[in-house]
């Protein structure tokens, strides 16, 4: 995905059927995803106007703007602008009595929190939070096309949660936001980063409220509509940003972003992925690598070796590196010993391979079960992956059952796993 989509479609007031509204909602969702993964240069005038408007709502004068090429450039930029970012967070006990005396970042965070609380009252969830799992219809609706759910009698308002809200949240909250933060920003609390706002990567919540309004399914207070429009304008115009007192640091959008559809997803969910280059690359060379949605260090993509895999403490990173060189190659080079092989009862035509992992490999003795994924990848293949299982299990079917919380005989009766 190399650019933002075109102008956003708009609700023209003439749509009357639920099917037409659903079609427009899906188009708007994809439009917001396009903005989230836009690689166009920032629209600086639009971004600065939106930030200035938000500063005004927070009772602050227009800031001076410092543009940086990527989030990786934020720490030195913020250090150079001290003390504007000297008090990034407030504890309730330490907060000044007057709201106007709070740091502007804290005032903006408070504004945003209050806005979302009010908007949530106009777009209530169809189930109560804090009362256990989501209702059964929600799980079912995720497995079917939105149009089919509508045809089966699910209310449009409920379908919008599975076809719009959840895909936006799954794509962004589990995708570029944590990956970029982990790869490009310091992990230590000692680094004075201030409060980070995510610009284009805030579209998951902005799009959710915007779509309900454009479909005529929610009406907000005029002041809330104006504030939402400012957050939306900023999300369409720029990357991450850090508000300070008198100065605002704003990052450009990436120059390159690569995604793939989430396997099995029916509602446009995406994940970061590129097998041979950065999944996200900024103009200053800051890079984020990701394989099938998992953020990984550069070496996993460019120079995976068995020695590096064995030094890697992160299990997910290690798994990705093994899959890069291939399980067969890894098993051979690492000297894993095949204990047993059996047909997979839950995946007809595939086999389970159970290997012994010596202590010298991962530091502790163990077992790894190689299985073939029940779901098809975006490229049409079924991925082979390894599962760590307890060292006392010697039967591949029992090991597969253990991974699902089942006994071996229970797993053997499965018709099909996913």
Could you give the order of the helices and strands? HHEHHHHHHHHEEEEEEEEHHHHEEHEEHH
Oligomer classification: single chain
Low-confidence stretches: 1-15
Percent strand = 5-15%
Task: Note the gap between the termini.
Answer: 29 Å
Spatial strand order of the main sheet: 4-7-8-9
Radius of gyration over all CA atoms, rounded? 24 Å
Estimate the mean pLDDT confidence. 86
Number of strands: 13
Number of helices in the DSSP assignment:
17
- Structural class based on helices, strands and sheet pairing: alpha+beta
Biggest β-sheet strands, sense, barrel? 4 strands, antiparallel
Q: How helix-rich are the residues, as a percent range? A: 40-55%
Shape: globular
Can you offer a commentary on this structure?
The protein has 418 residues and is of the alpha+beta class. It has helices spanning 18-36, 44-57, 74-80, 104-122, 136-141, 146-151, 156-173, 176-184, 203-214, 222-237, 298-302, 306-311, 315-325, 327-334, 359-362, 396-403, 408-412; strands at 64-68, 241-243, 247-251, 256-257, 259-261, 270-272, 280-281, 287-291, 294-296, 337-343, 351-357, 366-372, 384-389. Strands 4-7-8-9 form a 4-stranded antiparallel beta sheet. It has a 4-stranded antiparallel beta sheet with strand order 10-11-12-13. β5 and β6 (270-272) form a beta hairpin. α1 (18-36) packs parallel to α7, α1 (18-36) packs antiparallel against α9 (203-214) and α7 packs antiparallel against α9. It is globular. The model is unreliable at 1-15 (pLDDT under 50).
